[in-house]
UniProtKB/TrEMBL annotation:
The keyword Lipoprotein applies. This is ABC transporter substrate-binding protein. Pfam families: SBP_bac_3 (PF00497). It comes from the Bacteria. InterPro entries: Iontro_rcpt_C, SBP_3_CS, Solute-binding_3/MltF_N. The keyword Lipoprotein applies. Residues 34-252 form the Solute-binding protein family 3/N-terminal domain. SUPFAM superfamilies: Periplasmic binding protein-like II. Gene3D superfamilies: Periplasmic binding protein-like II.
Length: 252
C-alpha cells in the first residue's frame, strides 16, 4: 500500500514537472526556448534574403513578432517549399510561415492558424501578349513545385492546352521567364506583382483563382496553434498586422 502511494507521488511529481516545462517557454537557466520556423526564402515580399544573407519579409517579421509575444527565441530554417509539410510532419520544425495557403488538402497533414493574408494568383510574362486564360494555349507555363499554383495550373490545363514546367524555387521561375525557357509564370499575386515592378514584366490576374488565404502551419495537434491564433488576433486588433501589410504588401 505504502509503496503504491509513494509511486503515485513520483508519477504526480513527474507529470507536474512535465506540465511545468511545456507551459513555459523559458528553460531553467532563464534562457528562452527556441521556436523553430521553417520557410522557403524564395518568395519576396513574404520571405527572401537581403544582400547580407539575412531573412527579410512579411512572414519573417510576423514570425519574429509571434516569437517575441510568446517568449521564444526564433530560429529560421530555410528549405524548399515542397519539403515544408514533411518537415512539420517529422517535427523538424515547430511552425511554417511561407506564404502557405491553408488548403483543405494540406489540412489533412498539418494544422493551420487563422488566415493572416490573402493574395490571389497572377500570370506573369515578359511582353503583354496574353490577356486571357484562353490565350495560354500552346504556351509553356512555369509554376513552383508543391504550390497551389501547381495544382491550379493542372486544373486549368483541363480546359486550355498548354505545357507546364515545374521548378522547385520561386526565384528560378522568374529566371526561366527572363531566359525564355517558359512563356508565363503562374504565381501568387503579391509575389508576382513585386517581380513585375522590379523587372518590368507584364501580367494579368487569374480570374479563375479561388485560393484560400495564407496561414501559419503546425504539426498536427500542436499546442502552439491556439497561442499563435491569440497573437494574430491581438495583432489584428491593435493594427500591427495592418502595419506589416502596409510595409511589405502595399500594392496587393
Ligand atoms: N501560396 C502558395 C501556396 O501555398 C505559394 C506559396 C509559395 N511560398 C514560398 N515561400 N515559395 O502554395
Amino acid at each position: 500500500m505504502k509503496k503504491g502511494i509513494g509511486f503515485g507521488i513520483i508519477i504526480l511529481t513527474l507529470v507536474l514537472s512535465l506540465m511545468g516545462c511545456s507551459s513555459s517557454s523559458a528553460n531553467e537557466s532563464g534562457q528562452k526556448e527556441k521556436l523553430v520556423m521553417g520557410t522557403s526564402a524564395d518568395f519576396a515580399p513574404f520571405e527572401s534574403r537581403n544582400s547580407e544573407g539575412e531573412f527579410v519579409g512579411f512572414d519573417i517579421e510576423l514570425a519574429h513578432a509571434i516569437a517575441e509575444e510568446l517568449g521564444y527565441e526564433l530560429e529560421i530554417k530555410d528549405m524548399k517549399f515542397d519539403g515544408l509539410i514533411g518537415a512539420l510532419q517529422t517535427n523538424r520544425v515547430d511552425m511554417v510561415l511561407a506564404g502557405m495557403s491553408a488548403t483543405e488538402k494540406r489540412s489533412k497533414n498539418v494544422d493551420f492558424s487563422t488566415e493572416y493574408n490573402h493574395s490571389g494568383e497572377i500570370f506573369v510574362f515578359s511582353e503583354a501578349t496574353i490577356s486571357s486564360v484562353e490565350e495560354l494555349e500552346g504556351k509553356t507555363v512555369g509554376v513552383q513545385l508543391g504550390t497551389i499554383q501547381e495544382e491550379g495550373a493542372k486544373k486549368l490545363q483541363e480546359e486550355v492546352d498548354f505545357d507546364i514546367k515545374l521548378v522547385d524555387n520561386s526565384t528560378t521561375l522568374i529566371q526561366e521567364l527572363n531566359s525564355n525557357r517558359i512563356d508565363v509564370a503562374y504565381m501568387d499575386k503579391a509575389a508576382g506583382e513585386g517581380y513585375m515592378k522590379e523587372q518590368n514584366l507584364e501580367g494579368f490576374d487569374d480570374p479563375t483563382s479561388s485560393s484560400p488565404g495564407m496561414a501559419v502551419a503546425f504539426p498536427v495537434e500542436s499546442e502552439l496553434v491556439e497561442d499563435v491564433n491569440q497573437v494574430l488576433k491581438k495583432m489584428e486588433e491593435n493594427g500591427e498586422l495592418d502595419k506589416l501589410k502596409e510595409k511589405w504588401l502595399q500594392d496587393s
